[in-house]
Amino acid sequence: MEKTNTRKLDATLGELVAAAGEVAFEYSDNDREGYRLARLALVEIIKKSTHPFDLDKDFERVASPSTLLH
Q: Phi/psi class of residue 11: alpha, beta or left (left: φ > 0; alpha: ψ in -120 to 50)?
């Protein structure tokens, strides 16, 4: 079995938005910059925590449609 190095992010989207906003507004001079920093932080967090998608491997694990259809 191949061991994958995946990261799991154990937080809700609301928690992520709140944390990114809180930190961003501490380091920004105005609201516009704060929102921009929060958006950039959220994009980076989500990009680094997403599951790598490999169609070949992911579809190998799916059950045959004939066993699912009646």
A: beta
